[in-house]
Design brief:
The protein is mainly alpha-helical. It has two domains: about 150 residues, no CATH class; about 160 residues. About 85% of the residues lie in helices and about 0% in strands. The chain is globular, with a radius of gyration of 28 Å.
């Protein structure tokens, strides 16, 4: 039997391992987003891959068909949206600058008795409403957001070759991850110092919750975005593809959701004298939200991802602040990881600490100086 390594050998091995891991991280860091998306897509589409393997009995062929399915479901619709958005956004920016919506809003605010009563109430606290400044802020904010989105989409459209190469890298990653998923999982389990039962619990629990959150929110967001775009086109409103895409993104955010688009749209329609269209927009918002959030999503997701809506919203906003658009995915996954660890603590570690606390109380010596009445 070989002698155990000495202290200096253990320290040397640890330092070499840390340096090697750091160098590997630096080499792979430029491809972090592509690797993350590849792992995420491989996890989401693993069930179709397993079913194809059972029929074809050739892992490489099943992986190729799964990658083709991902391309048809993700890549081609994304290319269409990028092209349509790059064509529609300039018109929206010009409309914000030139249209009389802000003027109508200013006239309605200044002539509204309710607004004047609110102004008088706030004046008692030393707060005065400056309508011109408020409308200027709204105009500047709308223009800034429009220009930001336009620059992002234009950058994607201008660098379409780079976008295609990045997507090909993601697809290659998905191909090999689908084939080597079990081997990679076993390798990571061997590296983990936790017991195998706890490792399996973490993987299964995190996969179930993250899959429910991401797939459920993605499908519901897609449904709301498509329905919202069709509604905009049917009502003759501007830029249906743009606003449908925006609704598909904001649908990830609980509490607010597509109301961030439809409710301001209803307000603008009221200001322009289209009362029936405004009422139809509000009813459409309530109906679509009820059907997707209270009928479709509970049946599709179930109780696997019963996360607090406020924390989900804050995690998305915080993730977008740190990582941009990818924060829509990073934020809920970070929240999912936290609640997965909380579940494991409650099941595995809290009973242990409770037993330790109970045994400590039983073994503690009695206090002989205790006062008794």
């Amino acid at each position: 039997m070989a002698a155990p390594p000495s202290l200096i050998q253990r320290i040397t091995f640890l330092l070499i391992s840390l340096v090697s891991a750091l160098m590997l991280g630096m080499v792979l860091w430029p491809f972090w987003t592509q690797l993350f998306l590849a792992f995420l897509l491989a996890s989401v589409f693993r069930t179709p891959y397993i079913r194809l393997c059972a029929r074809i009995r050739a892992p490489w062929a099943a992986a190729c068909l799964t990658c083709l399915l991902i391309t048809l479901c993700v890549f081609l619709p994304l290319l269409f949206c990028i092209g349509a958005l790059s064509a529609e956004i300039p018109g929206v920016i010009n409309l914000i600058k030139e249209n009389d919506v802000l003027l109508l809003l200013q006239q309605n605010l200044q002539s509204s008795s309710l607004v004047h009563r609110i102004d008088d109430l706030l004046a008692g606290f030393g707060i005065h409403m400056d309508f011109e400044r408020l409308l200027g802020l709204i105009s500047d904010l709308s223009t800034t957001v429009g220009v930001f989105v336009y620059n992002q989409v234009s950058g994607w459209a201008a660098n379409i070759v780079r976008f295609v190469l990045q997507f090909l890298l993601v697809i290659v990653g998905v191909f090999f991850l689908l084939i080597e998923f079990d081997r990679l999982t076993d390798f990571l389990l061997r590296l983990s110092p936790l017991p195998e039962s706890q490792n399996r619990f973490l993987i299964d629990r995190f996969s179930a919750i993250s899959g429910a959150v991401l797939v459920g929110n993605s499908v519901s967001g897609l449904i709301q975005g498509v329905c919202g775009g069709i509604y905009f086109a049917a009502m003759g409103l501007i830029s249906p593809v743009l606003w449908g895409s925006v609704m598909a993104v904001v649908a990830f955010m609980p509490i607010v959701g597509i109301g961030l688009v439809l409710l301001p749209t209803a307000l603008i329609l009221v200001l322009k004298g289209s009362g029936w269209q405004a009422l139809a927009t509000v009813l459409f918002y309530l109906l679509l939200t009820f059907v997707v959030d209270y009928l479709f999503k509970p049946k599709f997701v179930g109780n696997r991802a019963n996360l607090p809506p406020l924390l989900v919203l804050l995690s998305i906003l915080g993730g977008m602040n740190l990582s941009g658009v990818m924060g829509i995915i990073y934020g809920p996954l970070a929240l999912t990881a936290f609640f997965t660890l909380v579940d494991m603590y409650l099941l595995e570690y809290q009973p242990y600490f409770d037993r330790r606390g109970a045994s400590g109380r039983h073994d503690a010596p009695a206090d002989t100086n205790e006062w008794h009445p």
